[in-house]
Amino acid sequence: MNMVNDKIIFTGPVGAGKTTAISSISDTPPVSTDVACSGEERAIKDTTTVAMDYSYIELDNGRRIHLYGTPGQQRFDFMWDVLTNNGLGLVLLINNNNPDPVGQMEFYLDAFADFIRKTGVVIGITQVGISDNATLADYQSKLMERQQIYPLFEIDGRSKQDVRIMIHALLAVLST
Amino acid sequence: MDVIQEIIDKSHKADMNDLERYSKVLKAKLEIMLAELLEECSDINGAMVSSTDGLAWARKLQEGMDENRFSAMSSALLALSDNLVRETHQGQIRKVLLESSGGNVLILHAGKILILTVFTCENVNIGMSLAHANKTAEDISELMEQCSS
Ligand SMILES: Nc1nc2c(ncn2[C@@H]2O[C@H](COP(=O)(O)OP(=O)(O)OP(=O)(O)O)[C@@H](O)[C@H]2O)c(=O)[nH]1
Ligand SMILES: [Mg+2]
User: Fold this and answer.
1) Of A44, A66, A145, A154, which sits 20 to 30 A from B59 (CA to CA)?
2) Which residues make beta-bridge pairs with B41?
3) Which domains does chain B have, with CATH numbers?
4) By mean pLDDT, which of A38-42, A101-105, B40-44, B46-50 is the weakest?
5) Is the CATH number 1.10.3430.10 carried by domain A3-174?
6) Quick one: how far is CA A171 from the chain centroid?
7) For A30, which residue in chain B has the nearest alpha carbon?
8) Residue B96, φ and ψ in degrees, nearest 5
């Protein structure tokens, strides 16, 4: 078993729920590098991730999966390569309540295209039903248009069960 | 800058003009402090001030260096180092020191929301740079405290 490779990366825009998702699934307190927002994001959130989130989970078969979350702000994009290096696959979280969430999904699929090609991705849409920015069908038809058939879930980042299902879906995709 | 807005809100009622003037004055003041730092210590060849969430505030850097990228990187490094120190029960972090073949990088907390990053020349005695950087970080911290009180 290659311990180094058992690592999943959570990414997505500011406020998608990456830090929340990693903390809801992990049994131990995660490593968090959230600091107070000082710029424009202050209007939306109190804290934001500046380096990474880290935790791990143990699957029923005893396999340990390391979870890393990226910062969502564009200025930390140098962390993307650092964190995806040797990773198993990607969990992409999109906040449906952001303006143009479908465009954000496309942005991240493009930005991580090389990594996704080598590994795999599942997409989780958070905060569905709060605004009518997009429906699940909108994401699906965009994926169809791009000829990218990836598992897509509506999730609540605060729900351990929801996050768990996504991780298992990703592992299933990767083993095929 | 929203933090400055908050500082102003706390002290007195302000309009947008006040905010802009205030933010300009504060940044100009920080740039002067950086210029003095470089002047007083010839081992130091660049310095910048940024927020803990990685936004550039003031710079005194060599031509072609992008303070926006470095600000993000400094905050990431400092945040991770903070964690390591805290989780290994080694108290409160003072600074991060990167020793490299072409010079050193020092990353210091400067008050609650600001970070001072200092770049030194090659082959210098780090002690001198450290002492000056510490002093400037303290001065910035004091300045910010005055602003918010
Ligand atoms: N309603 C709702 N709120 C959520 C959901 N997931 C997360 N949140 C909340 O949304 C906010 C976003 O939190 P974070 O987890 O910090 O987001 P992030 O993706 O890590 O953001 P950055 O680190 O700034 O990029 C938090 O206040 C969460 O409680 C969700 O599925 N539904
Ligand atoms: Mg986060």
Assistant:
1) A44
2) none
3) 2-148 (3.30.450.30)
4) A38-42
5) no
6) 14
7) B83
8) -110, 130
Task: Give the pLDDT of residue B20.
Answer: 67
**Residue B22: band (very low, low, confident or very high) from pLDDT cuts 50, 70, 90:** confident
- B13 pLDDT above the threshold of 80: no
- Sites in chain A below the pLDDT cut of 70: 1-5
B135-138 contacts at long range (C-beta below 8 A, 24 or more positions apart): B136/B33, B136/B34, B136/B36, B136/B37, B136/B47, B136/B110, B137/B108, B137/B109, B137/B110, B138/B110
Annotate A104-123 with b (16+ C-beta within 10 A) or e (fewer).
bbbebbeebeebbeebbbbb
Q: What's the confidence (pLDDT) of residue B19?
A: 60
Closest ligand 1 atom to A130 CA: 1
- SS3 call for B59: strand
**B71 contacts on A by Cβ (under 8 Å):** 75
Model pTM? 0.89
The pLDDT tens digits for A164-174 are 999 999 999 99
Tell which atom from ligand 1 comes closest to the C-alpha of A127: 32
A48 Cβ below 6 A of ligand 1 = yes
Give the ipTM of the model, two decimals please: 0.84
Tokens of B98: 């990167």
Pick from B52, B82, B85, B74: which is nearest to B119 by CA? B74
- Find the residue in A nearest to B69 (Cα): A75
Q: Which of B83, B114, B76 is nearest to B98 (CA)?
A: B76
pLDDT at A2: 47
Q: How far is CA A136 from CA A114, A154, A169, A173, B81, in A?
A: 25, 8, 17, 20, 40
Mutate which of A20, A104, A158 for ligand 1 pocket (most atoms within 8 A of beta carbon): A20
Answer yes or no: is the C-beta of A14 below 6 A from any ligand 1 atom: yes
